[in-house]
TrEMBL record:
It is found in: Cytoplasm. Keywords: ATP-binding, Cytoplasm, Fatty acid metabolism, Ligase, Lipid metabolism, Membrane, Nucleotide-binding, Phosphoprotein. The keyword Flavoprotein does not apply. PANTHER family: ACYL-COA SYNTHETASE BUBBLEGUM FAMILY MEMBER 1, LONG-CHAIN-FATTY-ACID--COA LIGASE. Its EC number is 6.2.1.3. Residues 5-139 form the AMP-dependent synthetase/ligase domain. One of its GO terms (molecular function) is long-chain fatty acid-CoA ligase activity. It catalyses: a long-chain fatty acid + ATP + CoA = a long-chain fatty acyl-CoA + AMP + diphosphate. This is long-chain-fatty-acid--CoA ligase.
């Protein structure tokens, strides 16, 4: 469905948001490229098919890039409320087998750092919107820029192959 919208409306605005008091807009084409970039990053960090990327942050373009990127990479999107306690975050992240947790702020990162050792599937945390106060292993900063797309994390054909591979059917 997203690709159909891209073909028909790629040059039109898909998202509008305010940053530092002024409106910015992102076209469907830019949205698609940013979501693919997120997908490549998640795969590079170890996202496994049918595992989750949990997103712990307020609505923002980065939230949506991460969500669509997760789907492009063969993962499952799981939202976590920013008001959730560390214990609630742990329950959700463990239950959905989160390989990656995306956070929007230091406050959210601190919740995850408290519970990380109890999350056996967690491989990395990605932070957007802020830079971590201190360097922590396996915590990465993801800078989304609607006008720039970085390349080289995962080959384009590999990402397309994942996107086009059907999911196995489970009757359990």
């Amino acid at each position: 469905m997203f690709c159909r919208a891209l073909e028909q409306y790629g040059h039109l605005h898909a998202l509008g948001f305010k940053r530092q008091g002024s409106w910015e807009r992102i076209t469907y084409a830019q949205y698609y490229l940013q979501a693919r970039q997120a997908a490549k990053g998640f795969l590079k960090l170890g996202l496994e098919r049918a595992h989750s990327v949990a997103i712990l942050g307020f609505n923002s373009p980065e939230w949506f890039f991460s969500a669509v990127g997760t789907v492009f990479a063969g993962g499952i999107v799981t939202g976590i409320y920013t008001t959730s306690s560390p214990e609630a975050c742990q329950y959700i992240a463990r239950d959905c087998r989160a390989n990656i947790i995306v956070v929007d702020a230091q406050k959210q990162l601190e919740k995850i750092l408290k519970i990380w050792e109890n999350l056996p599937h967690l491989k990395a945390v990605v932070m957007y919107g802020e830079t971590p106060v201190e360097k922590v292993a396996r915590v990465y900063t993801m800078l989304f820029n609607p006008h720039t797309v970085l390349r080289g994390l995962v080959h384009e054909s590999g990402l397309d192959r994942i996107r086009n591979t059907p999911w196995p059917v489970s009757v359990s």
